[in-house]
Specification:
3 domains, Gyrase A, domain 2, about 30% strand, 21 strands, alpha+beta, Alpha-Beta Plaits, about 375 residues, about 20% helix
């Protein structure tokens, strides 16, 4: 059955939309009220291009929220349990935004562009509305904006050579989780060494939406000698890397300790933050479930459009949230949340799929390159 997305003014087209159609985008999803390409080649073909060559993605749906003003640092720190005191201008951080109960509202990449200017590159939830609501009663001198910023990801082992061709050696040698302003033939950008693949990668934050097609074509031309292909965010590569998808693997009902991200929570940092009291209680009491990796038996699984139940014997113990077949590993792998007692490595669980029951074994995650040596190269 053919399915079409009916265009509406309520959903934005990115500055790259026409270029992605020309490049062969055949499927779209909606992410942060923006149409986002979700397929050019097969998922396996795009995955192979990501790990063997280089790809470009339109991820304008990663809407940017800008926090600026004299109190920008104090305000931004109040949104997250992560200590930002060592995040100097030109650096990036992966952070959680927490609610008063310690639940996760978003997991953006934070870019500190200046002493008093921060960007949050956000997952699919309305962070601008949340930040503006918090700011109303914060008593701090800050401004919350949603600037004209549209992001391209350049991901894969040859991504550095593409950046070198576009910007030169200095930008190509940008450090992991660093960012820097750039000008590409008059196109204003911020470039960061970040991405959604755990491969070597960069993100280009375009700050003039009228020049989207121009930037896309320049990136594609620079990537042509290295076999660049357009791609969508790869479920295969992100699950291999243990990268969580907000709204799929976590939401406001999940806290950082359940995910095993204790290192992103500083309960004693100097600036108070939303959710500190709740997270202190959670840490003291201990969690009752944990995020785990799974290896799933049986024929290749192409996709799960909802969480699937997990059982330990006859007892329901949790859900598998993201499941995919990895061609590289030649097995089905999954991210899951299970109750404590079922999280031990080697535990045999039963996964209930729409096509029947399968064995699933708890295993370490990430499934590939656990030390992130590839992305840090």
């Amino acid at each position: 059955m053919t399915q079409n997305i009916v265009p509406t003014p309520r959903i934005r087209k990115s500055p790259y939309f026409e270029a992605t159609l020309r490049a062969g985008a055949s499927q779209f999803t909606v992410y942060n009220k923006v149409y986002m390409p979700f397929g050019y080649d097969t998922p396996e073909g795009e995955f192979q291009a990501i790990i063997d060559a280089v790809t470009v993605w339109d991820v304008t749906g990663q809407r940017v929220v800008e926090i600026s003003g004299p109190d920008a640092y104090r305000f931004t720190s109040s949104l997250t349990p992560r200590d930002l005191s060592t995040c100097l201008p030109g650096r990036c951080r992966y952070i959680f935004i927490t609610d008063p109960h310690g639940g996760i509202l978003n997991d953006p990449v934070l870019l500190r562009l200046d002493e008093d200017r921060f960007w949050l590159s956000c997952a699919d939830s309305d962070m601008a509305m949340w930040a503006r609501g918090v700011a109303v009663h914060a008593g701090l001198d800050v401004r919350i904006d949603t600037p004209d910023v549209s992001t391209l990801q350049v991901q894969g082992p040859f991504s550095r050579e593409v950046i070198r061709a576009l910007f030169g050696d200095e930008m190509a040698d940008l450090g992991y989780y660093h960012c820097r302003p750039a000008d590409l033939e008059g196109i204003p950008l911020v470039v960061s060494r970040t991405g959604f693949t755990a491969e070597l990668g960069f993100e280009l934050y375009l700050m003039d939406g009228s020049r989207g097609t121009e930037l896309w074509d320049m990136v594609m031309a620079a990537g042509q000698p290295f076999g660049m292909k357009p791609a969508a965010p790869s479920r295969i590569r992100r699950i291999e890397a243990g990268i969580l998808d907000y709204g799929t693997d976590m939401d406001e009902s999940v806290n950082p300790f359940e995910l095993g991200f204790d290192r992103l929570v500083d309960l004693d940092k100097d600036i108070d933050f939303i959710g500190r009291a709740a997270l202190r209680r959670i840490k003291a009491d201990g969690v009752h479930r944990r995020a785990v990796g799974l290896e799933v038996a049986g024929a290749p699984i192409s996709y799960n459009d909802r969480s699937w139940p997990l059982y330990h014997g006859t007892v329901a113990v949790g859900q598998a949230t993201s499941i995919i077949y990895s061609p590289r590993l030649e097995k089905n792998i999954a991210l899951a949340m299970v109750g404590t007692g079922a999280e031990m490595l080697g535990t045999l669980l039963r996964l209930l799929t729409p096509d029947g029951e399968r064995d699933a074994v708890v295993c370490p995650r990430p499934f590939v390159d656990p030390q992130r040596e590839i992305s840090k190269a």
